Structure formats: C-alpha cells, structure tokens
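To the wet lab folks,

You asked to see what we're planning to order before we commit. Fair enough. Below is the target structure as tokens, and below that is the sequence we designed to fit it. If anything looks off to you, flag it before the synthesis order goes out.
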C-alpha cells in the first residue's frame, strides 16, 4: 500500500503521515529529507523552487515509492503541489492520496511557530500560487485536530482498501 499525504508547507503532512504510518505499520518518508542540497539552499534563501529544481527530487521520490512497494508499501509526506508532480509520484493506479488543505492565515501562523525548518513562512504565497487542487483522494481540512484528521484518514484508507479488493 502506497499512501501520499500532500499539501502546502505547514498543513501537517508530517504529523498525519507519521500517524498513518504508525497505525498501519508502514515506513514513513518525509519528502523534505530527499531534497538535494542545492534545493535546500535555494529555499533557505527565500527563493521558491521551479519545475527544473523539483524534477530530480520528484524522480527520486518515485523511485523510493517503487522500491517501497516491493516491501509492502510506505507513507510519503510530500507537497506535490501540481498535478504534473502527482502524476510522477503515481507509480501505480493503487496509490492512495490524502490532501491537506486549510486557511492561509492558520498555515501562516503554524509556519511562523516552526523552528529550524528551511521552508520559511514568507514562501507560503508561492506554494499557494503553485497549488493545484486535486479532484481525487481524501481532502482533509486542517481546522480539525490532528487526532480528528488522523481518524478520518484511517477511515478513508480502510474503505479504499476494502473496496479495491
């Protein structure tokens, strides 16, 4: 089972992804940890990434998903802002998607509270500008508590898996 948790920075992808991975006994990967040094440096300086910056990173993540599927699956937290990015990560038709979305002001406050993260709050506008709303998967509003979001995600995954079999 491959599960991808998407959304702009600050929506709680890591929190929900870790919760799902622990509940299902799957390994968790945070896409942020797979950025090349050049991407991290660029974002640390407040510059958004472009498609060319993202392509090697997305391909590495797709390869990670392919390898993870061989050993039973994984949960990946990844912004996957554009549909074209999600198509690269869709390594098979069975990928399950959880999309986190919420109010810009709430996300802004969360990002300001984060310490030691290269993605600065000032880049949030570029993420919202790039975000393409998907029309599939579970859409979770981040105004809920993390526990409520996790429970809703797990219900969705149980239903999705049972209807696919």
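Sequence we intend to order:
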């Amino acid at each position: 089972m491959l599960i991808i948790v998407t959304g702009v920075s600050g929506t709680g992808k890591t929190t929900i992804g870790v919760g799902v991975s622990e509940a299902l006994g799957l390994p968790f990967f945070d896409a942020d940890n797979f950025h090349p040094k050049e991407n991290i440096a660029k974002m640390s300086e407040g510059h958004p990434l472009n498609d060319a910056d993202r392509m090697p990173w997305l391909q590495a993540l797709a390869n990670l998903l392919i390898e993870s599927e061989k050993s039973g699956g994984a949960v990946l937290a990844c912004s996957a802002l554009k549909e074209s990015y999600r198509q690269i990560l869709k390594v098979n038709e069975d990928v399950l998607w959880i999309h986190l979305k919420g109010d810009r002001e709430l996300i802004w406050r969360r990002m300001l509270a984060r310490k030691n993260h290269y993605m600065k709050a000032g880049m949030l506008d570029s993420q919202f500008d790039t975000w393409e709303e998907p029309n599939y998967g579970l859409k979770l509003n981040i105004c809920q508590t993390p526990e409520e979001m996790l429970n809703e995600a797990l219900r969705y995954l149980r239903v999705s898996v049972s209807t696919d079999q």
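Structural context that might help your review: The domain at 8-159 is CATH 3.40.50.300 (Rossmann fold). Residues 51-70 form the longest helix (20 residues).

Thanks,
Computational group
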